[in-house]
Amino acid sequence: MKQRSEELTGEWFFSEKMDVYVNRSEESFGMSYHSHDFYEIAYVAEGKGYHHVGSETLPVSKGDLFVLPVGVSHVFRPSDAKNHGLIVYNCLFREEMLNTMALLADKSLISEEMFYFIETLRRPEWFKMVDQYGELDYLFRQMHYEYNRRDDPHMPLMLFAQFLQLLARIDRMRLAEPHHRGNGAEQLDEVLDYMNRNLGENITLHALAAKSGLSERHLHRLLKAHTEQSFTAYLQHARIERSCQLLATTSMKLSCVAEQVGYQDLGSFSRIFKRIIGCPPGQFRKRSRS
């Protein structure tokens, strides 16, 4: 039977100046099953218990870390009511923090790998990791200590820096796992293969991003890094290259060749062909056959 879930809102936790909230809680049976309109990173610091997340119930112990997107229902429970002993740090943050990370990526202040990880946080799936060497325990304690220094004018900057470090450390752990998702190279290969097999279709960056599971911004970055061309330029060159093959090996009318590679207007096809190849398509066909 599906459990009733309370919805928590960010206005209960965040202030106008702070898009991050950090607490340390001893879990009990008093906390209700809940979802929220913000993101959460939960870290088990002490004890054992269970995490009811989505439709799953997972045993948890020291070092377990969960990254929870917006809308996922969950609750931690200790092993039993008499001996709580389940201590969890919670780092809550708004969407604005991810937008700030994206701005840092635009200025090349964070790596492509880090940007990809930040984009994966926007996905609706939660995931679990294990801090095998206890690297995050001290960082969460620092963040909790810093968050409670409300009267210190340096607190917001210090907490922001620690939040960046937290994401970087989690991403480093993710990349160290043998089954990690990678930085998008596999998805890019699939995108390029799809484009080359469907050049006659209406191909858009938005549709490719949805198909690959990547954001449009990250997919465009990957394309540019791999091909040294923008999405539009790569698509045009791929279409014109295919048209050259058709012109040289078939007797198709120019209008049919244009349609085969995704151009419904012969004039547009001819202009782009001449700009890239240096001569009109008809002249190219004569040259190739001579």
In the predicted model, the low-confidence regions spanning at least 5 consecutive residues are none
- Terminal CA distance reads 75 Å
Strand order of the largest sheet: 2-9-4-7-10
The CATH class label of the largest domain is Mainly Beta
**Number of helical regions:** 11
Oligomer type: single chain
Element string (H = helix, E = strand): EEEEEEEEEHHEHHHHHHHHH
CATH topology of the largest domain: Jelly Rolls
Radius of gyration: 26 Å
- Can you count the beta strands? 10
What is the average of the pLDDT values? 87
Number of separate structural domains = 2
CATH superfamily (homologous) name of the largest domain: Regulatory protein AraC
CATH architecture classification of the largest domain: Sandwich
Q: Name the beta content range.
A: 15-25%
Q: Strand pairing plus helix content: what structural class?
A: alpha+beta
Largest sheet: 5 strands, antiparallel
* Helix content percent band: 40-55%
Shape: elongated
